[in-house]
Amino acid sequence: MSCLAVDENEFLQLLIAFDEMSSSSSDEEEQKERPRKRPFKHRKSKGVVMFRDDDGELKVLPPTMSLWYNMYCQTGCQERMSDFHSKFRRRFRLPYDQYRELVEMCTADSMKEDGTSLFKRWRPGKKAALTGKPAAPLELLVLTTLRYLGRGWTFDDLEECTAISEEVIRVFFHQFIKFGSTTLYNKYVGPPLTVEDAIDLCIREYEAAGFPGMPLIFPML
Question: Which of 171, 184, 115, 103 is nearest to 143 (CA)?
Answer without folding.
Answer: 103
